[in-house]
Amino acid sequence: AQRVTQPEKLLSVFKGAPVELKCNYSYSGSPELFWYVQYSRQRLQLLLRHISRESIKGFTADLNKGETSFHLKKPFAQEEDSAMYYCALRGGSYIPTFGRGTSLIVHP
Amino acid sequence: DTEVTQTPKHLVMGMTNKKSLKCEQHMGHRAMYWYKQKAKKPPELMFVYSYEKLSINESVPSRFSPECPNSSLLNLHLHALQPEDSALYLCASSQDGTIGIQYFGAGTRLSVL
Questions:
Q1: From the candidates B102, B103, B108, B109, which should be mutated to test the interface with A, based on the most A CB atoms within 10 A?
Q2: Under an 8 Å CB criterion, which residues of B touch A?
Q3: Closest to B12 measured CA to CA, from B106, B66, B86
Q4: Does A5 touch chain B (CB under 8 A)?
Q5: Strand B31-37, strand B53-57: pairing
Q6: What is the distance, to the nearest Å, from the Cα of residue B90 to the centroid of all Cα atoms in its chain?
């Protein structure tokens, strides 16, 4: 079975502060991990995937197989980063499993 | 064109109505998906079509009936829905069922009265 855990339902920070959205997963094989973002009234869109190892909008995420984590980080949060963030895992079934989501609010 | 288009954007229907949601993509993707999303919750998978064949049905009630007329189109036929079916219905597509990232449509916001 595959499972994705996002422990924080809500994360509230001030502009310019560092942000870390946590994601832990459970899967026995080699998973593919993603971060999706859903801005208010916009479509769900891919932010990052672990195999790309790239930085998008200042966000990075590293797959840590030892800790089974794929935390999303940004050194300096911006107000426009306020959104719902979903961590997702794709394993042997090829169908992504989504975490419950973390709502990020960045205050001015 | 990397877009998945869903129509209508909003739909209000009574419990005795029959309506359909439509999804279209022209990226040559061979896997298409229907999800249901309640407010502040993750998308819940309903159906997966792979190469125009239904490959996954996540025990969805029969009042929801999917259809894939061709590789670019996906429909969701609705009949005798309940108020608890009110939600955002999302369509997504990917290169095929095993590879590629999912591209999501903007969704149809459905209200059942």
A1: B102
A2: 40-43, 45, 48, 56, 90, 97-98, 101-107
A3: B86
A4: no
A5: unpaired
A6: 5
Spatial separation of the C-alpha atoms in residues A24 and A7, rounded to whole Å: 8
For residue B104, give the chain A residue with the closest CA.
Answer: A44
What are the angstrom distances between the C-alpha of B51 and each of A52, A90, B26, B65, B98? Answer: 27, 20, 14, 18, 12
Task: Give tens-digit pLDDT for A63-83.
Answer: 998 999 999 999 999 999 999
Phi, psi of A85 (to 5 degrees): -115, 130
Name the residue type at position A108.
P
CB contact under 8 A, A43 and B107: yes
- B101 CB neighbour count, 10 Å cutoff: 18
The tens digit of pLDDT for each residue in B31-68 reads: 999 999 998 899 999 999 999 999 888 889 999 999 99
Q: What angle do CA A36, B54, B50 make, to 5 degrees?
A: 55
pLDDT digits (tens, 9 = 90+) for A23-60: 999 998 888 899 999 999 889 999 998 888 788 899 99
Of B102, B85, B75, nearest to A97 by C-alpha is B102
